[in-house]
Automatic annotation (TrEMBL):
Its cofactor is Zn(2+). The keyword Hydrolase applies. This is Succinylglutamate desuccinylase/aspartoacylase family protein. InterPro entries: AspA/AstE_fam (IPR050178), AstE_AspA_cat (IPR055438). Coiled coil: none annotated. Residues 12-102 form the Succinylglutamate desuccinylase/Aspartoacylase catalytic domain. One of its GO terms (molecular function) is hydrolase activity. Keywords: Hydrolase, Metal-binding, Zinc. It comes from Haloarchaeobius litoreus.
């Protein structure tokens, strides 16, 4: 883990990239910020998280870091130990964690729940949607650093994801008072995850619907080895793709309102 601090004094804001080693957008966004270091109004920590996985070009070394929180100082895996160190490094910070996905090109935010922090900041980020994980926390960073907003910057490995990541960093730093200026707010829809969408073992998977677009009961939304899968109830797909996860297509969500 590599930590750079801008500004003097105790930092209460943090940016984290590289939680997954195969998602370079966050690290590239931080590196771009550091190429022309801005004058900050309050201190901020910039963190490259899983350096070893990033150097290897793999998602993780031994286990998914974003399923390893809160971690343990003498944990049995690299990521368990790293989760503990990262959580303690940014403890008490309002944090932006940058990710990318195989399922959706447009940036969106992910929060544990829409609390005062999320309500104040998310509408000021260049995201199209906000996703509440609800009960699907599963060892994510929220378990250890509750004032965290994750952002999916775009498609994994793309130039757009890196560019979006930089804009998200600037907007977050403005919204939290690290950079001068005013980040305008806008109404942003909120989706709450309600269940996983499983997929059985197969050779080929297909997805026929768009994330965040309503799927009606009876609509065909996927295929497994050519056999179609039909919705048994209405839902909004989130993080849904043919190859993003091993055992699920993604998640079904309800649209629950707006922030802004």
């Amino acid at each position: 883990m590599q930590v750079t601090k801008l500004g003097e004094g105790h930092a209460e804001v943090a940016i984290v990239g590289g939680i997954h080693g195969d998602e370079p957008c966050g690290i590239r966004a931080i590196e771009r910020l550091l190429r022309d270091v801005p004058e900050v109004r309050r201190p901020v920590k910039l963190v490259f998280a899983n350096e070893e996985a990033t150097e290897r070009g793999v998602r993780y070394v031994e286990e998914d870091l974003n399923r390893a929180f809160p971690g343990y100082p003498d944990g049995e895996t690299h990521e368990k130990r790293l989760a503990y160190d990262l959580a303690h490094e940014i403890e008490g910070c309002r944090t932006l964690a940058l990710h990318s996905t195989q399922s959706h090109a447009e940036p969106f935010a992910v929060v544990d729940g829409v609390d005062d922090f999320a309500r104040a900041v998310c509408p000021r980020l260049p995201v199209a949607s906000v996703v509440e994980t609800g009960r699907f926390v599963e060892g994510r960073i929220f378990k250890a650093v509750p004032d965290t907003i994750e952002v999916e910057c775009g498609l994994q490995g793309s130039e757009d994801a890196a560019a979006n990541g930089f804009l998200l960093v600037l907007s977050f730093l403005t919204a939290t008072g690290v950079l001068p200026g005013v980040a305008p707010a806008r109404d942003t829809p909120v989706f709450r995850l309600v269940r996983r969408i499983p997929k059985g073992a197969a050779n080929e998977y297909e997805v026929f619907v768009e994330n965040f677009q309503r799927v009606e009961k009876g609509e065909t939304y996927a295929a497994v080895d050519g056999e179609t899968v039909v919705a048994d109830e209405q839902f909004y797909p989130v993080l849904m793709s043919s190859s993003g996860y091993e055992d699920v297509f993604g998640y079904a969500a309800d649209r629950v309102g707006y922030v802004g």
